[in-house]
Amino acid sequence: MKFYYVYMLECSDKTIYTGLTNTLERRFKEHAFGLNEECYTYNRRPLKLIFRQEFLQFEQAEMFEKRLKRWSRKKKLALANEDFDLLKDLAVCKNDTHSKNFQKS
């Protein structure tokens, strides 16, 4: 059975790289050894694998990766640290224009 992995790497500059692969060990080695000079992580080594999630279907993995890429650093770290209370708090929309926060005059 083939699996797909969505993963997050914390880079030396504290940024978080999010990716998708079908072979996590190989892909991490490619990042860690800097095999591609064009890759985001090339000048940000050393790297630390902080999160991985396994999927059976590519489409589910791709959808999850795209969602994670839009998340803030704080939210990604909360997921990586399994801090689900913080993750829930960070997921709440706090914009004044959000219907839950809209103040009627």
TrEMBL record:
PANTHER family: UPF0213 PROTEIN YHBQ (PTHR34477:SF1). Belongs to the UPF0213 family. Residues 2-78 form the GIY-YIG domain. Pfam families: GIY-YIG (PF01541). It comes from Winogradskyella maritima. This is GIY-YIG nuclease family protein. Transmembrane segments: none annotated.
